Hints:
- This protein has helices at residues 2-15, 32-39, 90-99, 123-138, 154-176, 198-228, 232-246, 252-269, 275-281, 304-307, 309-325, 329-344, 356-361, 388-400, and strands at residues 41-49, 55-63, 75-79, 104-108, 147-152, 188-192, 287-293, 346-348, 368-369.
- It is an alpha/beta fold and 406 residues long.
- The chain folds into 2 domains: 12-197 and 272-306 and 337-400, Alpha/Beta hydrolase fold, catalytic domain (Rossmann fold, 3-Layer(aba) Sandwich), CATH 3.40.50.1820; 201-269, no CATH class.
- Strands 1-2-4-3-5-6-7-8-9 form a 9-stranded mixed β-sheet, with helices on both faces.
- Strand 5 (147-152), helix 5 and strand 6 form a beta-alpha-beta unit.
- The radius of gyration is 23 Å and the shape is globular.
- It starts with a helix and ends in a 6-residue tail after the last helix.
Amino acid sequence: MLLRWLAGYLVSLAVMPSQFLGEYDTGSTTDWSDVQQREGITITNHQVDSTNAAKIDFCEIHQNKKSPKAKDQKVIIYAVGNGDFYENHMRDYVRLTKKYPSYKIVGFNFRGTVASKGRAWSENDWINDCIAVIEHYRKQGIATENILLNGHSMGGAITTMAAAKLYSQDVAKAKKSNRSAKDVKSVKLINNRSFSNLADEIIVSLLGKSASAAITGILYGSLIGIIAGFSMLASIAVVTAALFATLYTTPMVVQNLLYPWMNGLLWLTFGTMDAASAYKSLPEGAVDHIVAKHDAIIQNKAGLHHALKSHNTLRKNQLRDIIQQEKNSAKVKAAEAELLNIKDSKVRYSDDPTHGFEAHNADLNMLSTYHKLRARSAEDKLPQQLSAEDVMDNKIQRLFKAKAKA
């Protein structure tokens, strides 16, 4: 598209400011050769080709022990937020190799960030960067279902779309070769504190209620003035005043009215980054997510969790019915575990909404669950509240149907 060619790169810089970062010297603060020897691990850097001549830099960390056969090897690929880069998380990756000693832990940067080369002109470029890293491991014979994408914030949205695109391509290939689509496996995915789509994120989290109402008033007031032949200024004033009044009663009106304009503009210039639709297109047993209460960077009504609310509510009611009515103890236990996992998806940094920045960016060990299915007191027989780090580990184990090393 012409507009993407003209404006796409500028939009990408605004959406992913990590592209302004220069080369990062990982050895400036840490001697990784010493860490490798001390921890008994191997750290290697790689580059893989992506679309439009981009080169994607990524690191791989694993324990110095005999690896499983390729078909049994598990890989966790991490993607970070829009102002971040994987080198910031090397210590986390090293720690994860202790928890998952037979896994390969991978961190990568999207094109234009640190040592990854190339420019993004549309959302597809970032999606293809993620797929390029996945394909690097699939070419080694690693099973698709043994690859888990774990993305935070912007990285969560992109990995979700990448998983959906790859799954769709694999289904199409299966149908073309007369194989059943039911046999096609998806990569696993955990979406960590990300948005449903870029338009809602801009309207809800960036513009906010007042700015969104003002812009919507100008757009619709101008249209009414032109179509009805009224004074444009008067039309804008009346419509804007009416929209500001709705902010106190039905705030979703402004979001719903502005959404098609914002979404259309993004579609023309870069892409809508519709992570919610991508998430819903993946097999239910292959996906999971985490959301933070009082997240100020991706506010509630812009988040993926909000987009999944009706589905999650329906599923929780179904699980409660199974728990109450099912006589098979194994099915009851499975339903209880699934219900607990859904409830665990919502964590918090603090009850104080002024800590919204930390709720979004803090390490998971600084957030925790807070729902009634988990007890707060040691005397209770119910499971105790968990740190969000433990929640993440549980989700990884659930998706891989494996256990982490204690």
